[in-house]
Amino acid sequence: ASEARVRSLLVWLVAGVAQERRKHRRLVAADPRQAYAFLKLLRGRGAYSDGVDDAAAVRWALNDAAKLVEGRAAAVEELADFFESGVATAGDVVGRIEGL
Predict the structure, then answer these.
(1) How far is Cα 37 from Cα 42, in angstroms, rounded to an integer?
(2) What values do phi and psi take at 94, rounded to 5?
(3) In degrees, to the nearest 5, what angle opens at C-alpha 37 toward C-alphas 70 and 13?
(4) Which of 15, 19, 45, 92 allows an S-S link to 88, with CB 3.0 to 4.6 Å?
(5) Distance CA 68, CA 60 (A)
(6) How far apart are CA 29 and CA 2, in angstroms?
(7) pLDDT tens digit string along 13-27?
């Protein structure tokens, strides 16, 4: 697996953690262990080796995800409110995302 692809997937895996940390002191639903499990799986299969320890890679991904979430905070809040309103379906939310 390429380093860029793995890093992108790590950011995706911790994006929920970044969003939840932005709103709450403690994690309720998001779980950063998914990113660690992903790296362990890749490294165990010999499919990825970058010389960086897992904790550093996950910290990097979390920092990058936090920057992305912060930069899109208004859009994320709007989508969350729209979805939580009870009148929007997941398809409606996807339609809004595609329109951004």
Answers:
(1) 9
(2) -60, -40
(3) 20
(4) 92
(5) 12
(6) 29
(7) 999 899 888 877 777
Give the residue carrying structure tokens 């932005």.
22
Three-point CA angle 63, 65, 70, nearest 5°: 95
Contact between 83 and 93 (Cβ < 8 Å): yes
Please, which contacts does 14-21 make with residues 24 or more away whose CB atoms are closer than 8 Å? Answer: 14/58, 14/61, 14/62, 14/65, 15/65, 15/68, 15/69, 17/62, 17/65, 18/62, 18/65, 18/66, 18/68, 18/69, 19/69, 19/76, 21/66
DSSP, res 24: -
Q: 41-62 pLDDT, tens per residue?
A: 999 998 988 889 999 999 999 9
